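Task: encode each sequence below as structure tokens.

Item 1
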Amino acid sequence: MQLKRKKVTINYGGKKAVVVVRELTWGEFNDVISRASKIENIGGVTRSTFDFVAFREEMILRSIEEAPFKVDRETIRGLPAHVVEKIWQAVSELNPLA
């Protein structure tokens, strides 16, 4: 089965550019969830936490196939929020459980 892809037009460096994002596989998606989740036992009490920022970053990093910029955490964090939100919107549409 073919994974879905989506082209996102962004403004990068003063010019229009295209970022291609793809649907993640079930295994990739579960790995992202696993990396963003943490289960701790503190004083005999089990506590779970979920890092939503890490989840979104990892989803974006794994979904981008083509971009006019280096695809790494540092670069994504340095992009304007409106650019990353546009990419996130496409990623979340392709991966509806996100």
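Item 2
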Amino acid sequence: MAWLGLALGMIVTAVGGWITQSGAVARLVTVVGILAVAMGILALVSENVLDVAAREGLLVALLAAVVFLWAAAILRHAGSDGSPAVSGCSCA
């Protein structure tokens, strides 16, 4: 599960930074993306150090960060964050 979350965290970090142009939203997405990758690495390497509840908490936080970044990218693509929609969007 940690491998999957780590892979998703790295993907959404790259996509999230690409989707947002600049400003506070870009900084927020970058920070959350870096935290997602860090939580994934920590969950992966802490198998013998942390107990099961702590590792599950890390995985829940990791997946919450992935979902947040996914939602931010979707909102940016649709133009719902106050910026113009990404060109090529056939949204009505």
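Check on item 2: The mean pLDDT is 74. The CA atoms of residues 32 and 65 lie 6 Å apart.
End of task.
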